[in-house]
Amino acid sequence: MEKIKIQNEAKQLEAKQANIGGSSFFEVFAEGMNITCATLEGTTFHDVNLSKVTITDANLSDLEINGAQLGGAYIHHIGLPPEGHENFVPGAKQRPLTFEHCELEGSRISNCNLTNVEINDCELTGLKINGILVEDLLASYKR
């Protein structure tokens, strides 16, 4: 495979139906880049600014986000593809998500399926479920 090296230059690249596997980008500006119908499996992003990035209609299975600032993030419509979507699989079950050591103060979870969700060893001050303080629920339960 031919290797193209661009260094200290301003270029706009357009790749269509191309294999650019194994490519590396170091200290680059790529604002406004558009990636459509691409396989990025196994790709690593390290020390990157992904603010204002939008990811839609994506398979993020086994995604790991570590040491990231997510303030203001809007995460919605997460789960398996719905019936009618080309990737819908009848009877498929969503694998569980894991949140560990996350700062979620002031966050809001609404209209979510929380069946069998476990919350362990977490600071619950001010946490409400349907407007009811969890601390009050736990105190009542312990009585």
Strand order of the largest sheet: 1-2
Shape: elongated
In total, the number of strands is 2
Helix count equals: 1
**Main β-sheet, in a few words?**
2 strands, antiparallel
Instruction: Report the portion of residues in β strands.
Output: under 5%
Low-confidence stretches: none
InterPro entries: 5peptide_repeat (IPR001646), Pentapeptide-BTB/POZ_domain (IPR051082)
Protein name: Pentapeptide repeat-containing protein
Organism: Sutcliffiella cohnii
Structural summary, described in words:
The chain is mostly loops. The protein is built from 1 helix and 2 strands; from the N terminus they run ββα. It has a two-stranded antiparallel ribbon. It is elongated and about 70 Å long.
Can you tag this structure with a few keywords?
Pentapeptide repeat-containing protein; 6% helix; 3% strand; 143 residues; 5peptide_repeat; little secondary structure; two-stranded antiparallel ribbon; Pentapeptide-BTB/POZ_domain
Short characterization:
With 143 residues, this protein is largely without helices or strands. It has 1 helix and 2 strands. The longest helix is centred in the C-terminal third of the chain and has 9 residues, at 134-142.
Task: Please describe the topology of this protein.
Layout (H helix, E strand, L loop, with lengths): L127 E2 L2 E2 H9 L1
